[in-house]
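Input sequence (143 aa), recorded before submission:
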Amino acid sequence: MVAQRALAEILGETELKAAVDAYVAGDRGADTARSVLMLIRPSFTIDYCHEIYLSSQDEDEKSMAVNLLKAIGDARVLAWIPLYLSDANAAVRAWGIGILEELYYRDEVESEAYEAVLRLALAHPENYIREAAVALQTEMYPK
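Predicted structure, token format:
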């Protein structure tokens, strides 16, 4: 964790936000930018992805910002998942359930808070979201 903070400090907020922008835009080197962001996971880039989601008028940018949150998000992102699951954009909804899965596998969220969002996904009107939620629930509570 110390090394991650040191790398974030060395690279700087401006450059790391530029890496987020490059990934979201699908620019050349986007996958490299994603890999670096996954390694460092600076808090401000997580917030920046959510800001892009909230402010962008471009549906692809919004979905790519949420996609990146699946890779770099931390426990704070759990609170945003209901918003993503209710988005009109199918890609955003899919990445929203993907974030829920990722947070479970990383074991970064307290189970009580996680279960509240899982219940929301279990009641989702979209079959894909419900199926993914059932799979997570089955993994969490095997028979």
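Checked by second reader. Residues 90-106 form the longest helix (17 residues).
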